[in-house]
Amino acid sequence: MSPKILISTGGGNAANYLAAVQAAGGAGEARYLPAPDLSYDGLLLAGGEDVDPALFGQEDQGSRGVDRARDEAELALLDAFCGAGKPVLAICRGHQVVNVWLEGGLIQDLGPQLVPFHQRKEGDQVHLIRAERGTLLHRLYGPVFPVNSSHHQGLGKLGRGLWAAAWSEDGVVEAVEHDTLPLISVQFHPERMTGALARLDTVDGGALFQVFLELCRRKGSGKRNL
What we know:
two-stranded antiparallel sheet; alpha/beta; 24% strand; Rossmann fold; 5 helices; single chain
């Protein structure tokens, strides 16, 4: 049976997310401002613009394209899905929403010295990241490997129960794991590193979707976490 995945987006083209979920054996449905619906087997928080800094106790210091309605909808989705123990895959903006949901903070702009290593005017930037031994990323890809990225913000103080699982060369947290929740959270874009969008200069992001879908299947059958 194909796990049914709710994909929360900013209302733009979700084709890459849908294709990655389908290629991994799932059935995705992309929606803007979806209400929590636990008939889905898992939740994917897609990339997009910045989180309202008021939600993590800061004034605006360089945030862009804030959509407070989306922020509130996705925080409610995390309440529902994580409260029910259902798996979540959080990508780029989603990675940041997860941290805010758990009462962490964000660096609103990495600044002129760091942004060029994480964001280009056109297309994705490619850079190395280092994974902590024993983490999901380390098991999938090894200790050091190349990924893509397109962001100007990063995680600040980590939220409750989160711990850093991978870092970029300049110290930006590229992935987190949670003490108890079935959560995969990455700053890069695995949906743009797999299938028709697979790159020779990065790892295959499809492996993350496969793990996520398998986690959804196991949760649906009452089996333990991966």
